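Input/output pair, single chain:
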Amino acid sequence: MSEVLFKDAKIQTGDRIKIPKAIVDTLNLKSGRKILIKFDVLKKRIIIEEDKK
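Output:
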């Protein structure tokens, strides 16, 4: 598993979910594709997956 680190980032709050361009490019996601975002509270980990349904 490779890791992408974002240093000097700041927390933003709101109703929309913004995913950094580096992650979108790495996952080869295009605008309009559906994704699943899973948040593991215990491990404080976010997992982004493409929704293939």
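Residues 34 and 52 are 8 Å apart (CA to CA). The longest helix spans residues 21-26.
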